Amino acid sequence: MTMERPLRSLLAALLILLAGCGPEGPDPLRIALNPWPGYHGVLHLAQERGYFAEAGIEVELVDVTSLAHTRRAFERGQVDIFGGTAAELVLAAHNDQREPRAFYAADWSEGGDRIYARTDIEAVADLEGQRVGVEPQSLDRMVLALALKEAGLDLDDVILKGVAQTDTPAALVDGRIDAAVSYPPTASRVEELKGFHRIFDTSTTPGGVIDFLMTDAELLESRRRDLVAIAEAFHRAVEEIRADPAGTYPYMARVQGLSEAELASTLDGIHLLGGNEQAVMADGRARQAVALARDILARSGSSHLETVAPERLVTPRIIEAANFH
């Protein structure tokens, strides 16, 4: 009897140890997000509401300050997914560290992307010969190109100046630039500057600027179920935002660092895309947006982008496997 109790205790301890040595679950999926309400606010809401947990997946949202930072985090393997535009998708594909694929269309701009200028510059046509601030290697060039084309001008007709989004208000006030491309939340600050006004926004080109959730081609295979769950969670969050602005805007505004009024104004210029609006991923519109971004970036000095094939960068596989209800 004196040996039986220690033996039982030893066996129990071994069973506990062996139980702890079982296979671990998959690593959390890390998603890099710059503060753009079209996906940042939506995914933060999905996490806060527990939509990822309900689907049995673990997600870590990594907030960064700019689109360039989201892309670099992805290229360096620091995150698995990132939110961004067709420009980031093209640049990430060109840089070759990974094989990016857009798998969900998060939103398109309907006034959210804007051009501001000194008040003596009355219209886009007056930008000829002026210094225009754009975030380096970003969608800003695409927005500017769309605006200039409407006015009968070209990127070669203006002087491009690299300016980080967060530095745009100061660059305008200091006189380093005459005009700038901007988007929320920075655009809310520019809107309040004296001596400047909005001369263009993407309300005139709906669907021309699309934001995506993007991942690596390898993860489309190894984490397919989890990517489907993220797409479904995004859809649920969009549906909740539409049905209950009063119940969702306060949290979204807080995580974005905006007032509720600023968030509401920003979302007025963005069309959030639910799961039932993902035809854009399969009908050619997403690929057209990617092709336009590639062509504009190539003309702006990014070499060898002609090798980037838009048809390879957009996949409808995840949305086709998802259950949006």
From TrEMBL:
User: Which residues does UniProt call coiled coil?
Assistant: none
Recorded hits in PROSITE patterns, A to Z, give: PROKAR_LIPOPROTEIN
Q: Which family does it belong to?
A: Belongs to the bacterial solute-binding protein SsuA/TauA family.
**What is the protein name stated in its UniProt record?**
NitT/TauT family transport system substrate-binding protein
Q: Which InterPro entries match?
A: SsuA/THI5
User: Can you tell which superkingdom this protein's organism belongs to?
Assistant: Bacteria
Record's keyword annotation contains Zinc: no
Record key words, sorted: Signal
The record's section on SUPFAM superfamilies has: Periplasmic binding protein-like II
Q: What is the lineage of its organism?
A: Bacteria, Pseudomonadati, Pseudomonadota, Gammaproteobacteria, Thiohalospirales
Q: Where is the SsuA/THI5-like domain?
A: 39-246
Query: Organism source for this protein?
Result: Thiohalospira halophila DSM 15071
Subcellular localization is given as: Periplasm
Is Signal included in the keywords of this UniProt record? yes
Query: What does UniProt give as GO cellular component?
Result: periplasmic space
